[in-house]
Amino acid sequence: ENPDAKAVLVNNPTYYGICSDLKKITEIAHKHGMYVLADEAHGTHFYFGDNMPVSAMEAGADMAAVSMHKTGGSLTQSS
């Protein structure tokens, strides 16, 4: 439907804490030659525990935007 699309943008997790299946999304996107960009502003903590959902980078995403000050317990200036 959008043959000129170059990337998929995923908001993960949503504001309600719902996580996408990033591994599957990344697999499908890469199969079609597309980049995967993840907005992980509310999922910064995923990187700090084995009992957390998979992070975007661990799932194979090409880019993840994180905001440590939103969910990581740091000052606003750190992001």
UniProtKB/TrEMBL annotation:
Listed InterPro entries: Orn/Lys/Arg_deCO2ase_major_dom (IPR000310), Orn_Lys_Arg_decarboxylase-I (IPR052357), PyrdxlP-dep_Trfase (IPR015424), PyrdxlP-dep_Trfase_major (IPR015421)
Cofactors that this protein relies on: pyridoxal 5'-phosphate
Keywords, comma-separated and alphabetical: Pyridoxal phosphate
An MF annotation (GO) of this entry: catalytic activity
Every Orn/Lys/Arg decarboxylases family 1 pyridoxal-P attachment site domain range: 65-79
Name listed for the protein in its UniProt record: Arginine decarboxylase
